[in-house]
Amino acid sequence: MLRAMSEVFDLTCELIRRRSLTPDDAGCMALIEARLQRAGIHCEHLRYGVVANLWATHGQGGPVLAFLGHIDVVPSGPEADWASPPFEPTVRDGKLYGRGAADMKSGVAAMVVALEQFVAAHPDHPGTVALLLTSDEEGPVNLDGVRRVAQHFRETGQRIDWCVVGEPSSKEKLGDLIRVGRRGSLSFRLTVHGIQGHVAYPDLAKNPIHGAAPALAELAAARWDDGNRDFPPTTFQVSNIHGGTGAFNVIPGSVMVDANFRFGTASSAASLRERTEAILKKHDLDCAIEWNLSGESFHSPEGGRLREAVIEVCRELCGVDPEPSTGGGTSDGRFIAPLGAEVVEIGPVNASIHKIDEHVALDDLERLPAIHFAIAQRLLVG
Ligand SMILES: [Zn+2]
């Protein structure tokens, strides 16, 4: 049974009902846009290909505080494994269940409600308060979501001073962990060429696996950096190796290797590339390498106004001292930080995200809009 509890609860349920699997927004954007426009908030569509992005703003000029989120969700997995259908919001034991309940339709609903409340309370606030939503965060490529929007902002000169990402950051209790940065992610696909031949006649062939193996061993053993105060040391992992014809008696003509770096501010994508290529060169491989940078690392240092405001709000409204963390995977914050923005992520408990029976605690859901409201109030009104 569902009962109407509050605006944020109702809106979260409305969003969960829309099956917005990446990149389909399934009507979420239209629903949010209609609400925001009623509240006098200006909405601009930034559609790229099949991806819907929404840029909603109120006020003018700087400073600019932007809330950031995504309305797309990952697939539910087998629906029969769920205790209640994933796209039917359901309350049980003080929790709201449904795909996206934690990642991150509750966060989006809270940011929308907080924005409406903030604009109603401070119609003439200084600067600009904004909301950026995408429907392409969970997908494998993320070309036409926030990455493209950030490109557009760079071209049009749209600045962002502070960016609050509403991703589920908390560990056990709402507000117990905030993300103040993320590691960068850099991948490569290496193809090493040899000469195919009979294993009994190796002098008539050239084995690319034998060529690649010592180079990979050196890459795997390398210490890329020692990390620093804000980030652990850079890690390197090989994820795939493909080579061979399947036959025991054939030396393959080539081998393909995929690998990934996760790095903090002690290294950069450029420095990692350079060192990798030097190692490959040393091993004298006939090879081609394709690089893919998902994002550089970013970090919002201690003393930043947004970071301090979020910490104070967590203490005041959640009664916890948040742990400032740079752990976990990457987030859309990586595209906004290079615009010069201070980026901090604060959201509900992430224990159930992407899982069967994803949920958010109702108590946490009800407190989320107040957190966003209080952050906006501190930064824009003082
Ligand atoms: Zn998410």
Describe the structure.
There is one protein chain. It is built from 9 helices and 19 strands. It is α+β, with helices and mostly antiparallel strands and 382 residues long. The strands form 6 sheets. A 6-stranded mixed sheet has the order 1-2-6-3-7-18, covered by helices on one side. Strands 12-14-10-15 form a 4-stranded antiparallel sheet. Strands 4-5-19 form a 3-stranded antiparallel sheet. Helix 1 (7-17) packs across helix 3 (105-121). The longest helix has 20 residues, at 362-381. The two termini are 41 Å apart. The relative contact order is 0.19. The protein binds zinc ion. Residues 70, 103-104, 137, 167 line the site of zinc ion.
Entry keywords:
382 residues; alpha+beta; four-stranded antiparallel β-sheet; 25% strand; binds zinc ion
In short:
The chain is of the alpha+beta class.
The helix content, as a percent range, equals 25-40%
> Quick one: how many beta strands?
19
Secondary-structure element pattern, one letter each: HHEEEEEHEHEEEEEHEEEHEEHEHEEH
Ligand inventory: zinc ion
Q: Classify the beta-strand content into a percent band.
A: 15-25%
Distance between the termini: 41 Å
Structural class: alpha+beta
Overall morphology: elongated
The main β sheet shows up as: 6 strands, mixed
Radius of gyration: 24 Å
Strand arrangement across the biggest beta sheet: 1-2-6-3-7-18
By DSSP (H or I, 4+ residues per run), the number of helices equals 9
Indicate the low-confidence ranges by residue numbers. Answer: none
What is the average per-residue confidence, as pLDDT, rounded to a whole number? 96
